[in-house]
Amino acid sequence: MASWLPETLFEIVGQGPAPSKDYYQLLVTRSQVTFRWWKISLRSEYRSTKPGETKETHEDFLRNSHLQGKFDFLERLSDDLLLRILSYLDLEDIARLSQTSRRFAKLCTSGKLWEQIVQSACDHITPEMRALAQEMGWRQMFFTNKLQLQRHLRKRIQQQGSQRSSEL
């Protein structure tokens, strides 16, 4: 893996799907994947159950269907982490992903994602551009060509100027 990556890439901790009360932790580092679980139960036969742990290399973890079956990775990731991942995808991939589920449709059209995409595509975002994006939406701003965008910005600046002069 790249040396610029932090040692811990991400960590997910959560409760298993209902009716289970068990807790799980997935820790992904540069060198390995660690999967831990804790059995939570009021039943006497589980009181002495110790937590479990499996450590695997990335390749072995991906080949281990037993662990893969226990954990739906995408559903467990936070929206913020998914948005960060989505911001690196090509536009065609974002369009395809938006058709896979309601959650991805919402994320792929969210203002947060398109703000990240616009920021990565532009050298500098002026306060006027940011205000315009708040009005028209970051996605719309991304797909508006430069000439139309300059016209929108000029019109906005003129409107602000006329509002200020009428206030005086």
Can you put this structure into words, describing what you see?
With 168 residues, the protein is an alpha+beta fold. The chain contains ten helices and four strands, in the order E-E-E-E-H-H-H-H-H-H-H-H-H-H. The chain has a four-stranded antiparallel β-sheet with strand order 1-2-3-4. Strand 2 and strand 3 (33-38) form a beta hairpin. The N and C termini lie far apart (61 Å). The model has no long low-confidence stretch (mean pLDDT 81).
Sequence of strands across the biggest β-sheet: 1-2-3-4
**Major sheet details:** 4 strands, antiparallel
Please state the structural category. Answer: alpha+beta
- The number of helical runs is 10
**Low-confidence parts lasting 5 or more residues at pLDDT below 50?**
none
Strand content: 15-25%
From the spread of the alpha carbons, the general shape counts as elongated
Q: Got a strand count?
A: 4
Helix content: 40-55%
Please state the CA-atom Rg, rounded to the nearest Å. Answer: 23 Å
One letter per element, helices H and strands E, the order comes to EEEEHHHHHHHHHH
